[in-house]
Amino acid sequence: MSAPHRDPWPGVVPGTENEHAACADLWTRALAHRDGTAPDPADRDRVLRKLGTPPHLLLVARPVEGGDPAGFSLSFPPAAGDPSRTAHLAFLALDPGRRGRGWGRRLLAATLDRLSGTSDAVTLEVLPDNAAARALYGSTGWRVVGEGRFEGSGRSSVVYRLDLGRG
Q1: Is the separation of the CB atoms in 27 and 44 below 8 Å?
Q2: Does the UniProt entry include the keyword Acyltransferase (predicted)?
């Protein structure tokens, strides 16, 4: 009996401006897959606007060096002088064909590792009915701290927070 197929873990590296379009395309595909809809150009435009907002931390996961991202995270470290030292994870996405293999958990861990030097806590928002994302965040120590609305779409959100401790 052969061993089950396992994807190799990609490198998680800082993303570049040249990868903004690929990340926006990936986000749009992931949302369409999650929602069972056609890709929405407005979703892509929202991601591109956020990617163009400095300062941010963009990490990409690649299965092969030089290949297109198979996943990415976009977070915003705390503003200079912010006494709360709270970062915000704005996007975490994987190519839909790579879900369920631990890649999201690893990309999340790499993101938190990078933020831990500048942040004491991280927040994020998720759709109330996004069971997969909520399971990931709940299993990795995030706690629900409130409700909100997504800036771009106005849809309801659940706000999570993870305390990192002093970086």
Answers
A1: yes
A2: yes
pTM: predicted TM-score of the whole model, two decimal places: 0.88
Report d(CA 70, CA 28) in Å as an integer.
Answer: 13
Nearest CA-CA partner of 119 in 153, 84, 92, 143: 84
Per-residue model confidence as pLDDT tens digits over 2-52:
334 344 555 888 999 999 999 999 999 999 998 889 999 999 999 999 999
Contact 140/161 with Cβ under 8 angstroms? no
The CATH number linked to 119 is 3.40.630.30
Q: Could you give the number of structural domains in the chain?
A: 1
Strand segments, DSSP code E, in the chain are: 11-14, 57-62, 71-76, 86-94, 121-126, 143-149, 156-163
Q: Domain span at residue 73?
A: 11-163
